[in-house]
Every structure is written in structure tokens, then in C-alpha cells.
Description:
- The protein has 7 helices and 12 strands.
- The chain is an alpha/beta fold.
- Strands 5-4-3-2-1-12 form a 6-stranded mixed β-sheet.
Amino acid sequence: MRIAIGQLDSGPDTERNILLMEDMASQAAHAGARMIVFPEYSTYEKPRVDSSFVAAAEPLDGPASARLAEIARRHQLVLVAGIVETSDEPHRAFNTIIVVGEDKERLAVYRKIHLFDSQSFQESRHIKPAVDLRPVTFTVDGIVFGILTCYDLRFPELARSLADAGTHVLLAPSSWVPGAAKPDQWNTLAQARALDHGIFVVAVSQAEPISIGRSLIADPMGAIFEQCGTSPEVRTIDLPLKRITETRQRFPLAQQRRI
């Protein structure tokens, strides 16, 4: 499968962000991509999550999601992106990843489970964690994709549940908060989740300065197969999916696991 990474530098101007996504989707489609993956908080982002995220939140069928679905249709891509979704709480929204197909059909919705209450951040003050903790997957061309978001990478049991649900490619839209050793941790966690389960991990982060950039694909042996720099860019990559079967034959971890 040919997949595109759309490493954005999103800000609080939703219109600007969507126009950037339109341009990147166009580039990806011209390069023959089947899917494009954008970061967490694609449509609205700031250095810190505050009450403005709640004000910017929309329902799943809101105008931002409708625009993204139209981009997917226009460029005949499966599009994965982060939005801020309204919740049933007036002072908190959901940090949501949506997946829309080229026919504008919504293929999956994932609401972030583990909120970033670390490094003096309090994401949970303005964002509501997912209520439903079941793994979220969707299938394209017979390939099963699983979804988690950013800080979720630090919780291996979530990746395990997605692998047990049949995931071949794990998508991790993120806005990885900068800090000491954070780029190394980003690489290590994505590589570990790939190596744990013999899967590809496509981890797409926001660019500097809000985040660290360095979006990457880790292969089933845990090696970095592709990695971006720190600036906005779109990159299209062919995933050699046969590596999943080859790796699982060499290391049949799922069959050997004892619980």
C-alpha cells in the first residue's frame, strides 16, 4: 500500500489548516497514495490545550469534518485526521481522530483514551477521555489499521489490544510535546510498538515549533523505515506489507505469549 504522511504545522486558524491539508492531499494523490495520515489536532492546535479548544469543537458532522470528507472524495484518498469534537460536557471536548473514505463515508472514529497530564500540561482539564475503551480498527484493501493518539503510545496494553484485534498497520496521529529527550522517546516508543507485535507503526506528528516533527514509519522489526524532518512536509511511501508475514514467521510472538 502507498501511504502518505502529512506533517502539518497546525495553528488556531482552522481555515488555514484545512487549506494546508487540501494541498498535501493533492500532492499525495498525485504521487499515487491510497491514504494520507495527518496529526492529532489537525484542524485546531495551540502550544497548550486551553478553553479555546472547547470553543472550537464541532460535532462529528460539523463543517470541518465535512470539509475533510470532501477533500477525501476530491482526491480519492482515505483521509485520517485529528479534530476537536464536542462532548456532552460543556467545558470539555473530545480529542478525536476521524477516518473518511474516498466516498465520504466515515470509516472510523477514535477518541483519545490517555490524556496528556504530564510535563505541567493538563489536557484533561479541557479534553474528555474516551468513554468506550474498545480498540478501534478499520479495513482498507484487506489491510487492518488500528488507531491510537500521541500519549497513548506510552501505554503498551492499548497497542496490544489493537494487535489482538488484527491490526497490521498502527496509526498514531500525534502532537508530541517538545522537551528533553522527547525526540528519542518518540522514536523508541514507535519502534517498540512495531517490534512488540510485528506490525508497521505510522506515527505522524505536528511540525516544529508546537511539536517535534520527525514523523516516522517503523517496520515490523522495529527499524525506522522512513522519517521526516522537523518542518511541514508531505511524504509518500510504499509499505512492503510482506514484511509483516515474514517477521511473524521468524518471531511468532502472538503464538508464544503466555498470560
